[in-house]
C-alpha cells in the first residue's frame, strides 16, 4: 500500500476537493440483494425481503431489544432505501452547522454534570437544529462551493454526527473534578486535555455499532408535507418550552417540586423520606408533582408502553424494598444504626459521614492508621440494593443477548468478508464510497494509547503500564457488545474488574474505569453515517472533528464552573442550581471499589449481595425465556428482565419529584399521542432541547456561571431551602 502525502494547500482548495469527492461518488454502482430482487443506485427499494433491515424490524419488537430510544426504531422501520451519490456531504455550510452545534452540545453536556438532574443532549434536537442552521445558510446566495443547492440529508447527517460526537459527556471529567475537589489535586491544562482526548479517541479505534436515527433527517431533506408539519411543530414546542423554563428554573423554583404532604403534615424525616423529592437523595417523591421538564424528562414520550409498565412495576416494588430494608436495618445500614435512607457519601458504622480525606492519601492509597480508627466505610441499605440491581441488570442483559440473539451473533461471527444475503443493505451501498483506512484506525488506537499512558504517568495515577493496557483491552471487548448491551454493562463490569483484582488504589481505579468505560460511549454512533449512506471517510472525519471541538468545550465549562462555584459543589446538596452530587457519587464508588472492595464485596463480606446480584442476573432471564418458548401466546416476552432490574434503583437517587408526572405523561403519550407518534419524538427533542438551552443561558448569565450573579429575592415560590418545604437531614 502506497501512502500519498498531500501538501496542506491541497486540502485548502475546498471547492476542488469537494468536486474530486463528487466524481469518486459518481463512479460507483451499487447492487443490493434483497430476496429475489436486485436494486441499483438511485432506485427506491420498497421491499428488501428477508434482509437485515426486516430482521431488525422483528428484533425491535423483541422483549430484550434495546428500544427505549426513539432513534433506534426509526431506522429499522424504514423500508425505503434511496441513495443519491451526487449529493455532497462535506460542505462549508455543513461544517459551520456542525461546529456551532458541537460547541453548544459539548457545553450543555458538560454543564449538566453539575446540575441536580443529569440530562443527555437529545440527538434529535441536535439534528433538527443542524438542519435549521444549514437551511438558513442555504438561503444566502453565493458561489457553488458555498451554496450547491438545498441543504441535503447527507449534509444534515454530517453536521449532526459532528455535533452529537461533541455532546457525549466524558467520564474523564468526573475523575478530574473529583481529584480537584476532594484531594486538592487540580490537573494542568495539558494533562486534562490529554486525558480527555485520549479516552475519547480510543473509542474510535474499536468497531462498536448501534442503530441511530436517520428517518427524521431524510424526511426533512425531502421537504414533504409531513416533514414541514414536523418542523413547524418542533419550532412552536421549542420556543414555548424555552420561554416557560425561565419560571421553574429561575423565577418560581418552587414549581420544581410540589408536595402537599410536606406542606400539611408536621415536619419529620419520615414524611420527607416518603414524600420528599426536590433534592438529590431526599426521598422517594411519592405523590409529589413537578412542573419543570428538566426533572420530569422526555423518556415517557417515546419509551414503549410495555417497557414503561415494567418500570412502573419495578418502582412500586422498590418502594417496599427500600423502606423495609431501611426499617429492619438490612446489612446493618438502616434506621437501627442511624443511617440516612439515601446518601452518596460513604458512612461510618454509627451513621456519620466517613472522613475520606483522612482514610485515603492524595495518591489514592489507604491510610491504615486512620482506617483502623474509622473502620471500613459503609453505605445505606438503598445504595447497596441499587448496586445489586444494577449488577443484576447488566448480567441479565448479557444472558438475554445470548438467549435471544444467538443466531445473530453466530451469523456475524461466521459471515464471510464478502457479506452475503445477511449483510446490511446500507453497508452494501456505502462500500462504493471512500473508506476510512484500517491502518489509520490502528494508528488512532496506538497514538491514543501512548497518550493515555503518558497522561497516566505524569498524572501520578499509580496505574502501571500493564494496568492501562488492560483497561484499553477491556474497552475493546466491551465495545464489541455495546450494540447489544449499551453502556451500562461496560461501566459496571470495568469497576468490578479493577476493584477485585488490584492492590487497592482509588486513583488508579479512577484511571482504569475512565479508559475502560469512556471508549464504549464514543463508538456507539460509529454507524450513523452508514444508515444515512455517507462515505465512511466523511463519518469518521465528522466524529473526530466533533470530538476535538467537544474536548475544548468540555474543558472550558469545567474550568469556569470549578473556578466560580467550587464552594457550592462541596456543599451536601449544592444550592439548588448547581451540585457536586454526581462527582461525589463517582468518588465514593472509586474508593469503595478501589480501596475496600475485598473487604466489602467478596463472598462472606457485609455487601457480598452485590456479587450475588450479578450471579442472579445471569439466571433470571432463563425462566422467562423458557415460558415464552412454552406458551408464546401468553405474552411472557413483554416482561424484560434487564429493564426490570435496571428500573428498581430509579427511586433510590436523584431528584424524584417528577416521577409521578412522568407516569402521567407516559399514559397520555401512549393512549392519546400515539396516533401522532411521528410527532412524539419531535416533541421530546423540542421540549428537552429547549429546556437545556434555557438552563444553560440562565446559568451563564444569571445564576453564577459567569463571575456575576442576579439573585431572585426569597419568597413563597422561591424558598430558602428545599423547594417542596420538606425537612431535610442536616
Index terms:
730 residues, mainly alpha, two-stranded antiparallel ribbon, 35 helices, 2 strands, 60% helix, 1% strand, globular, disordered N terminus, protein transport, OPT oligopeptide transporter protein-domain-containing protein, peptide transport
Characterization of this structure:
This protein has about 725 residues and is an all-alpha fold. It contains 35 helices and two strands. It has a two-stranded antiparallel ribbon. β1 and β2 form a beta hairpin. α25 packs across α29. It starts with 7 loop residues before the first helix and ends in a 29-residue tail after the last helix.
- Given as residue ranges, the uncertain stretches (5+ residues, pLDDT < 50) are 1-79, 205-215, 416-421, 485-497
Radius of gyration: 26 Å
The N- and C-terminal alpha carbons lie at a distance of 68 Å
Strands, count: 2
Average residue-wise pLDDT: 76
As a percent range, the share of helical residues equals: 55-70%
> For the report, how would you describe the main beta sheet?
2 strands, antiparallel
Number of helices: 35
- The structural class is mainly alpha
